[in-house]
Amino acid sequence: MDTKENTPFPREGQGDGVGILDIKAFLDADEKKDLLRLLTAGSVDDGKSTLIGRLLFDSKKLYEDQLQALERDSVRVGNAGAGEIDYALLLDGLKAEREEGITIDVAYRYFSTNQRKFIIADTPGHEQYTRNMITGGSTANLAIILVDARNGIITQTRRHSFLVSLLGIKHIVLAVNKMDLVDFDQTVFNKIKEEYLQLTRQLGIEDVTCFPISAKQGDNVVERSSRTPWYEGPSLLEFLETVPIHRDRNMTNFRYPVQYVLRPNLDFRGFCGKIASGVIRKGDEIVALPSMKRSHVKSIVTYEGELDEAFCPQSVTICLEDEIDISRGEMIVKPNDLPYVGRSFETMLVWMDEEPMNRGKQFFLKHNTNTTRATIDTVEYRVDVNTMERLEGRDFRLNEIGCVRVTTAKTLFFDAYSDNRATGAFILIDPITNNTSAVGMIVRPLEESETNELAVPTLDLKALGIGEEHYEAIDKAVRSLAKQGIEIKVIK
């Protein structure tokens, strides 16, 4: 790939009489590129770091000082032959990683081509670093699962594929690496491909694309290889540049968690936040949760000016036609499309803390802009991530995954993670250490008959002889208590 051909703006003497670099045009074009977040996963020595290093090297996305340091480190560390480059050293930056030849921490690399921007997360393959892989994959659109052509589908491949399905990543690339060590045998590739497709069908993963590659020698990574004439598909980079991801976002269910109430003067009152999913237009009818009060969108304000419509993941300020008391942690949605509203739900949980789970402890639960107290009521089962077998329920230890039931002190507004990643995910925080104890992906709300939660106190205003003139003051008091984690049900 020629560097000059990849130059996205005209040089002196090129184009229609352009004599200087048009920096503004370049920046405008660069800003309009979409972003693909991807992770790599595989067993030890499958070549994850080498693949990403080769991708950066062959696409000419390394600075000169990076290249010099890579050549120097390749000689010093000694993992490459004479005159060769060890591409894995671009990502395995920790001393322990280089000494042991493994990936421990998640390494992120950014690069771009004329078509798209990329953020790559190189995640560790060891089972004891499962939480690192979950962290790296939490925002990914696509996952590259590497397999050694000599070994085929192994236990780690099944584990990584299960974790990818758990995270809801919709696009999977199976990269059958080290094809040079099996003489680029098509039969070997086809056997591994068919076995993996059977696995992904069991996991409910629909979009899977398979590539025969050699990360070390560059076959089918950036350029298509002449050594695989039987393979008619694109190179890996060509695929990454064109895989459609715009449909991955939930543009159907409008969810707007309020982050901040903006009141710079008496004439302006807006609700600031990031659109979690869906689309909102000027004039649309909305409903505020939990008050269930309705209004219409008066304006959608941004730094650049007002918009007629906005969509996820834009950050905007929404102004309403009516004065409605809405505060941080509450949610604006559309009347005919409500999320689940409740305090109890079933969720898949990944334990991230060195300290084992303690069901007697109250955690802080952070869900979008909402934070409340929460307890883990029941452990339904644990999952053996290597075999996907369900095991008996007990308190989780580091890196363990399973299904639990959670009850919160304050009402949440949520969707199933499979329907909406933005409103179906949360984290549990240890109130003493402030460590992230677990991450959760909500499966479903619990029916009242399934919950172990304490009864919510009820205030019947009519039975107490309280008139309508006091309703507004009582509503404000109840909302104030709810923000402190104390819920009271009011009957009018």
Description:
The protein has 492 residues and is α+β, with helices and mostly antiparallel strands. It has helices at residues 23-31, 48-58, 64-77, 95-100, 130-137, 155-167, 186-203, 236-242, 421-424, 471-483; strands at 35-41, 107-112, 117-122, 142-148, 171-177, 207-212, 255-257, 260-265, 268-274, 279-281, 285-289, 293-302, 305-307, 309-311, 315-320, 331-333, 340-351, 363-367, 370-384, 389-391, 401-414, 425-429, 436-445, 458-460, 489-491. It has 4 domains: 33-247, Rossmann fold; 255-333, Elongation Factor Tu (Ef-tu), domain 3, CATH 2.40.30; 340-450, Beta Barrel (Elongation Factor Tu (Ef-tu), domain 3); 458-491, no CATH class. The protein contains 10 helices and 25 strands. Strand 12 and strand 13 (305-307) form a beta hairpin. Strands 7, 8, 9, 11, 12, 13, 15 and 16 form an 8-stranded antiparallel sheet that branches. A 6-stranded mixed sheet has the order 2-3-1-4-5-6, sandwiched between helices. Helices cover 21% and strands 32% of the residues. It is globular and about 85 Å long. 34% of the residues are buried.
Low-confidence stretches: 1-20, 94-104
Oligomer: single chain
The CATH architecture assignment of the largest domain turns out to be: 3-Layer(aba) Sandwich
CATH class division of the largest domain:
Alpha Beta
Q: Which class do the helix and strand fractions yield? A: alpha+beta
Radius of gyration: 26 Å
